[in-house]
Amino acid sequence: MHRKRSDIRKREIVEASLEIIKEYGIQKLSLKRIANRIGISEQAIYRHFDSKLEILRAIIEYFNNELKKTVHADLPAENVAARIHTLTSAHMTFINTHPAVASVIFSEEMFQNEPELAEIVRQALMKRLSQITQLIQQGQQTGEFDAHLNPSIIARMLLGSLRLNVVIWRLNGYQPNLLQEGEEVVTTILNLIKTEEVPVPSSGKIIKHT
């Protein structure tokens, strides 16, 4: 029998794990269930992953790698708010199409017992927090956002609110529309920190809001 390439089989195992987590929850994920879902033996899984923990780690790394694509993608240059919207929208879009990922990366009880996984998620979170903080600082420097506010706190408010949205979305059976709700959260927070005077990128003039 022809044996599939290692990278293809690993992807199958990760995707099967995500399907099981979505259907039954992370507590029900087991090597036996994964093997039955794919139609292979448990021993075949051990050729690619040493344990369920390794599979969960692969899921987290898969999530981080997908988000890196948005970090390095070209962002709109018209204003900082548009750039923040682009990043957060990409984040919410990925979770919306891969809801089981949220069950893994937001599983606080699991991370209490698995410090290695917790560290991987922490590092990824800190990178995203740093990126949003830097964008807010840029907006403060250009006069788009209120310079008196702490950019780090605003970034935490933004990411924390989006995370709460995801939790509510999961508890409500993946309702309401995650992308729409996320967009409203980001718009509301950015409107709160915008200055009354916004520079126009094309001319450098100032338009005063009335």
Total DSSP helices: 10
Largest sheet composition: 2 strands, antiparallel
Shape: elongated
Radius of gyration from the CA trace?
20 Å
- Which sequence of SSEs, written as H and E, runs from N to C? HHHHHHHHHHEE
Q: Total strand count, please?
A: 2
Query: Could you tell me how far the N terminus lies from the C terminus, measured between alpha carbons in angstroms?
Result: 73 Å
Strand order of the largest sheet: 1-2
Percent helix range: over 70%
Average pLDDT for all residues: 83
Overall domain count: 2
**What structural class do helix, strand and pairing data support?**
mainly alpha
Assigned CATH superfamily of the largest domain: Tetracycline Repressor, domain 2
How much of the sequence is in beta strands? under 5%
Unreliably modeled segments: 199-210
CATH architecture of the largest domain: Orthogonal Bundle
CATH class of the largest domain: Mainly Alpha
| CATH topology-level fold name of the largest domain | Tetracycline Repressor, domain 2
